[in-house]
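Reading a protein record of the kind used here takes only a little practice. Each token is a code from a learned vocabulary of local backbone shapes. With that in mind, consider the following protein and its fold in token form:
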Amino acid sequence: MTERLQTKLHIGCGDVALPGWVNIDLAPYPAVDRVHDVTKPLPFESCSFIFAEHFIEHLSLHDGLRFLQHCRKALADNGVLRLTTPNLDWVWSTHYHPGEWSSAEEAANDCLRLNRSFYGWGHRFLFNGQTLDLLLRQAGFATTVQRSRGISDHPELQNLERHEEYPDTPALPHVLVVEASGRLEEPLAESLPDFPEYRRDTEAPFHQLQYAALTAVRLLKRAFRKNA
């Protein structure tokens, strides 16, 4: 059997270089082989594997979808994308305990811990498994499989994870590990019904326009009262 050449992309590598992979990041860290903004099309095609560990949570939901679409386009038909990202279900379960606080200080600490998970380390969006699965299918992937850290049917994708581990259980892992493959002939047109409203209410340009309009209205009201 002839061994075929493989192109393997390690996205958001930071300072971790995987031997035999093209290590990609937005910043020119020493480990980086290729500096690239992954919200723009990936300059690769027919790739065998793409691996991104603790990366997609650093993108907005809209940019995350674009990134996944670019991954699907860069992969071969039988290529595989392996993602790991914090599990929102684990974050909520372990960081926030309403009704169990014995003091205001405990409640405040939970509040800080939960917000740190959402906004710390440059995080933009935390996924639960269902939302990540829907986004992958909206990006054009036909099949998604839940995995555990280091486990894969593909030898090339085994034991890749390097990120710090936290206590969890099989029923409630602290990270989601997903392998996506296949190609939908027609990606889901709108798998997240509230996606437009989410973008409208969370993206800065909308709020800048909104606050500018409110400020203009207030100024006009003050001017009108002053001239009345």
Observations:
- The first helix runs from residue 61 to 74.
